[in-house]
Structure formats: C-alpha cells, structure tokens
Amino acid sequence: MSWEVDEQFFDRAFRSWVEREQPSIDLRFVVVEWVHGLQSDPFLRARPVQDFGDDWWFARIRDSNTGQYVVTAVFFADPEYKLVQISVLATLGFPI
Does the structural domain 4-93 have CATH classification 2.60.40? Predict the structure, then answer.
C-alpha cells in the first residue's frame, strides 16, 4: 500500500514557501516531484526530528541543491494511516 500526501497540508506549505521565498519555476517542479516520491517511501533521505516526536521527519529535497542552498521539508508521517502531512518547506543555506 502506498502512502498518501495530505493535499491541504502540502498546498499550504507550498504556497507559503513560494510567497516567502519566490523560488524559480524549476525549483518548484523539483519540490512537486519530490512530493510525488513520498507516496512510495517518505523516509528515503529523511531523518527523524529530535524533540518533535517519533513521526516527525526532516528532509533535504533531492535535486534542489544549488551549491549555495537547498530546499528542505519538515513533515509528519503517520504509519498507521500511511499519511504524510508536510508542515514546512524552506530554503536553507549551508551548512545545515
């Protein structure tokens, strides 16, 4: 069974990120592609967020590294319902 990404959470996080940081169209597509990948394995290249609880994860979004910054995400992954809720998307400079 594949995972489901909560569209309302993603939409809110994505719109906030776009309004705040005005990323390029190409970078927006990279993020959307990464979100689709969450459906098969949300834990790939993700690590648990300390002090948030067992089901909170942090990820650097693959192919978003420009050499100066990378797009990151914090999300909740509910293993019982196989549901992913993306809380925050942010572009961070190195080192992370």
Answer: no
